[in-house]
Amino acid sequence: MLPVIALIGRPNVGKSTLFNRLTQTRDALVADFPGLTRDRQYGVGRIGPGPYIIVDTGGIGSAPEGIEALMERQVQLAIDEADHLLFLVDARDGCTPEDLDISQRLRRLGKAITLVVNKSDGTDPVQSSAEFHRLGLGDPVSVSSSQGQGVRSLLDQVFERL
Ligand code: GDP
Ligand code: MG
């Protein structure tokens, strides 16, 4: 059985871009507006220590109906079946209240989580990731899903924890 890695995070942080990078495909639709990915999308990746199954999701934190609605059904299903969660945040937006809400919910699950600071291209990764320590998920890993920096190293770290 291949390990299952799920991509979690609020809309527009770059989950689908990372999915495509990890699967070396363009299967996931990437958009510069939020909310395009509505259900789960599966792919097989072989980068670094792979292979692995990667699951793209959409929508967490996008429902306006309060904290209980934060995890839509599809995201919950993806989380349930995952061995490891990649929680993506956006280096350019910084740490948002929604990121804090999501991190609190994720921490309660007791699953292995890696905090991924995406869009770190054009930023100082040390500076831009520092504020995310407050999410209480350990040391953030900086990547650029669109440029590729940090992705190999991210996978090495995930596989060490599987
Ligand atoms: P999702 O909603 O989380 O799936 O986000 P998408 O993958 O659709 O990406 C949202 C937007 O962010 C798109 O315009 C992407 O091109 C852009 N984006 C994604 N990853 C990166 C990155 O590493 N660096 C930069 N500069 N932009 C990115
Ligand atoms: Mg998407």
TrEMBL record:
GTP 1 binds at residues 9-16, 56-60, 118-121. Residues 3-162 form the EngA-type G domain. Transmembrane segments: none annotated. It comes from the Bacteria. Associates with the 50S ribosomal subunit. Belongs to the TRAFAC class TrmE-Era-EngA-EngB-Septin-like GTPase superfamily. EngA (Der) GTPase family. GTPase that plays an essential role in the late steps of ribosome biogenesis. This is GTPase Der. It comes from Thiobaca trueperi. The gene is der. The chain holds residues 1 to 162 of 464 of the full protein.
